[in-house]
Amino acid sequence: MEFNSKADLLSLGHEDLIKLLNKYEIKPGNIKLKTAKKLKINALWKKIEAQRTDETDDKENTSGKTNDKSDRVNSNASESGSQTAPNTKAESPTNLEKVETLLDESKNEFYVVKPSTVETTPVEQPKTELDGFIFNKVTDATKYLKVFCKSDKKAATMSRKFETYEKAKLHLLDTRERNFSGNGPKTASEMKLNNSPKLGEKDFLQIKYLVERRKDRTEPANSLTESEAVERLESYLRENPNRIMTRENGAPIMVSPNFHWNVIHYAVTKGFFGVLELYHSLLTDKVFINSLYENTSYEMQVQNAKRLHFGYFTTADKIAHDTPLHLAAKFANPSIVEFLLNTANLDGIGPEIDEYSACLKTENKAKEIPEQIIGKKLLSDIRMKGGNETSNAYLIPVRNCQKLFQELWILEIDINTTTGVNNKFNTVRYNTNLMSFPTNKTKSYIGPSDKPSLETIKKQLNVRWSSAPMNQHLVVERRRTHKSDWEKGILTHARILCKRNDLILNEYWPFLNDTIVWNDSPRSIFGKIDVFLATKYPKTNIDTAGISEKIRESVVLDDTIDRLCDNLERFSFKEPTPPQSPPKSCNEMFLEGTSATKTDVQFHDATKQFFTDEQDTREELEDEFPTLWSWYKNISSKYSQVNQRKDLRTPMRRRVKK
Question: Is this structure's pTM higher than 0.70?
């Protein structure tokens, strides 16, 4: 029986086809499968063609030898599972269409089986050769891949799903071009994100050594100080920005591949807080971001940087599925926990990538959220040293971490100090980035604290009238503070309530363009104002001799009798001078402008509590901050009465551009 094409072979019955395959010494295999049957028929057809070629005359012998050589190569590849191009010279166009009826180009689902090696240029292959690697069904592609890779598991791979035939074809050609060797077609190089050198194979080791605070592997761990290690790491990253991300997909650098720990994971386990600050500052620094993604637009730079930042600070590891916040909670490191909760949180800043706050509810492999495992690793380390959970080495950091997880909220007090118009009080998630962000309108706030405490303060601030005796004193306080200063009335009232409820008030002052944190320790407040006044009046010759003498006298007069005697000596029957607008002095200092303004009396009233409550505290503050004390005495003596303040005005300030 003669066969003129592959179609004749396809028309044979199952048993006849097996006999024919055995005749030409081809193993039948499972030819019930369409893909396997197609492969066997291709191999059988080549055997038949080879037999016919041997019987040709001498004139056709040269071309016959060439075809025979090509057939032998394709035959070997077919027996090992490879698919080759059909010989279109021996087939008619009609028969080719019959062979390739399994692929429907009009559908929207295509899968590609990509060979690892190619013997001829893909562009020169006929259409049927390319379509032999493209399938509409994933099951057909999988079956074909199994047969293809029967003898060599790396002979081919299967692609993802493509929606169009053209994309599948381009993917197949692109893959084969990339693996083509010789003088074949050249592929275009991928666009570079920047012009810096590529990431070296051993760069991650150098980063790991610096996190371990050592120069290289020859030195012991902790041989460098934290500041030295951070300085070296920063210069190492700025020297080549590509060292902060992988070359393939721009993901975080893994310094412990077995655990899938990136630099932040590893730094948390080492308790190296400086590394977290460094990576956060670099990935939010416009100059560094521009050098990292210099060949992209500004919008893409911000988006890529935030995605990389999110990967570093929120990615879970492979083993325990712990995020950096899980690890920080396990080791009970309050400074790192606070940084991850309140600073390394970019929610609300830049493009929306993912939600950082979701880390609070992210579960690890043991179905535990970070708050549930505070001090777990710390306790095991303490027990190995002979301690237990009652030791201060465990209790103090654990309590601090628990407090940080609870105090995640602030109460916004949005007030326009120029018009005195106040808006609603909002309880929001605390974020230090939002507090310092230029476009943020909220400048004064209470907290951070727990939500119930802030809701209580919110109700007290909103009390305008109440018949309940318990709330009447709040109404009186509110009216008095608003009457005394309609601009700062809300914040003055908030200051009183925060002191009573042991909460922290962060109050914005325009003359500083910064916030003052009102708490039980006034030294940070007075230190900031003292520096501000010393900077504003560097050459002012303040007469502090009399003030210093009084301070020394007050230090000597410790007893009540001595104080009474001192006051008796200063007693006079002279009528006190009626209050009036004081004359200007060359030694006067003011917070804004060249004369006294409402800002001076507002800040005077805010600081008055620290100078009048405790005599010992007053003496310490007078001695420690002489410049501030000189300003306070000047304002207190000349503008303490209401009628002395009637001529004071609010300073003119430049409007902030939105």
Answer: no
